[in-house]
Design brief:
The protein is of the alpha/beta class. It folds into two domains: about 1-120 and about 265-325, Quinone Oxidoreductase, Chain A, domain 1 (Alpha-Beta Complex); about 125-260, NAD(P)-binding Rossmann-like Domain (Rossmann fold, 3-Layer(aba) Sandwich). The protein is about 30% helix and about 25% strand. It is built from ten helices and 15 strands. The protein has helices at about 40-45, 115, 120-135, 150-160, 175-180, 195-200, 215-225, 250-255, 270-290, 305-315, and strands at about 1-5, 15-20, 30-40, 65-70, 85-90, 95-100, 105, 140-145, 165-170, 185-190, 210-215, 225-235, 260, 295-300, 320-325. The strands form three sheets. Strands 3, 4, 5, 6, 7, 14 and 15 form a seven-stranded mixed sheet that branches. Strands 10-9-8-11-12-13 form a six-stranded parallel sheet, sandwiched between helices. Strands 1-2 form a two-stranded antiparallel ribbon. The longest helix has 21 residues, at about 270-290. The protein is globular and about 55 Å long. The relative contact order is 0.15. Bound molecules: NADP nicotinamide-adenine-dinucleotide phosphate. The site of NADP nicotinamide-adenine-dinucleotide phosphate has 26 residues, from α1, α3 and α4. NADP nicotinamide-adenine-dinucleotide phosphate binds next to α1, α3 and α4.
Length: about 325
């Protein structure tokens, strides 16, 4: 099969399209003819050699895909060749064929094409895990979503809305309109405004119940400061750095804060199956009726994968960058 590969770790110019052995489905797996995959920040880190795939996973980039089942393992009961599926992968999405456990494959919601469906798995699973499983977000609560215009951010805004919560986001100004359209009540331009002051002013000094963070160290103190009593901080990435020089943690005690972090890729298969099935029950009826939607910023032909990586690294996307696999 054809797959996007790396000559060596480094910049986007290291990516090339070439032949690679087609994976074989094991007993519980299906082989999918991939029609579309989507970019994630993790791909850019893996390309640089900073985020190796977990043991046993494909060395090929790509954490999600959508396409058509081509072959099924002997023990598969849920799917047959010709079924249209999308799903989260541990790797291997930038390829003509990918294997996925039958319980991780989800049907492409009615009416969607593969390019839209490929934009669902990683960001909706991550947002759902963070808001529902980790933060236990309740209706009526307020959540601060950093990087609101990111793939994960645009999914999280929508999920918070359908969970009955109010959301505020930080994002560069050009991304505010879509965040507000998706359901955020307040958008903060973190380049121009201090987000801590803006959140406290907007909430009449009450603060947020939950903060979803991807920036890490530079935001840590302010995140603690903007949480209200019994608040929860969920760390999903460390794009801004890992070390805080000075930290005042007194409010962790005083406000009974909970701080946790998670990476989805490192979770066990059992955990990911349970999460995928829970998201399926929760979100698929909402995708079917159009209440939730994947936000596709742009679609690149996979031959232009280097350009797609540069576009993401320039922070130009709002929502997902999709690769059409031909
Ligand atoms: N823990 C997990 O399980 C998990 C799963 C999926 C993704 N993630 C992480 O979630 C984050 C979002 O992923 P994504 O694929 O949705 O990203 P994305 O679409 O590429 O969006 C990232 C956005 O973050 C904003 N940003 C703010 N500060 C930044 C900084 N210091 N460096 C780079 N970008 C900054 C930029 O938007 P502005 O123009 O608004 O600044 C940028 O466009 C990534 O860090 C990713 O690794 C974590």
């Amino acid at each position: 099969m054809q797959a996007i590969q790396l000559t060596t770790f480094g910049g986007p110019e290291q990516l090339f399209l070439g032949s690679f052995p087609t994976p074989k489905p094991s007993e519980q797996e299906v082989l999918v003819r991939v029609e579309a995959t989507a970019l994630n920040r993790a791909d850019t880190l893996q390309r640089q050699g900073k985020y190796p795939p977990p043991p046993g996973e494909s060395p090929i980039l790509g954490l999600e895909m959508a396409g058509t089942v081509a072959e099924v393992g002997k023990g598969v009961t849920k799917w047959q060749p010709g079924d249209r599926v999308c799903g989260l992968l541990g790797g291997g999405g930038y390829a003509e064929y990918a294997v996925v456990h039958e319980d991780m494959a989800l049907p492409i919601p009615g009416g969607m094409d593969a390019e839209q469906a490929a934009a669902i798995p990683e960001v909706f699973l991550t947002g759902f895990q963070a808001l529902q499983w980790l933060a236990r977000l309740q209706a009526g609560e307020t959540v601060l979503i950093h990087a609101g215009g990111s793939g994960v951010g645009t999914a999280a805004i929508q999920l918070a809305r359908v969970m009955g919560a109010r959301s505020m986001v930080t994002a560069s100004a050009s991304k505010h309109a879509i965040c507000l359209e998706l359901g955020a009540e307040k958008a903060i331009d973190y380049r121009e405004e201090d987000f801590e002051a803006a959140v406290l002013a907007y909430t009449q000094q009450q603060g947020a119940d939950v903060a979803l963070d991807f920036i890490g160290a530079p935001y840590f103190q302010q995140n603690i400061n903007v949480l209200r009593t019994d608040g929860r901080l969920i760390l999903l990435a460390l794009m801004g750095g890992v070390k805080t020089e000075q930290l005042n943690i007194s409010s962790v005690l005083r406000k009974r804060l909970q701080i946790t972090g998670s990476t989805l890729r490192a979770r066990t298969l059992e955990y990911k199956i349970a999460l995928a099935q829970d998201l399926f029950r929760f979100a698929w009826p909402l995708f079917e009726e159009g209440t939730l939607k994947p936000i596709v910023d742009s679609v690149f032909d996979w031959k232009d994968v280097a350009e797609a990586h540069r576009y993401m690294e320039a922070n130009r996307n709002v929502g997902k960058i999709v690769l059409r696999v031909s």
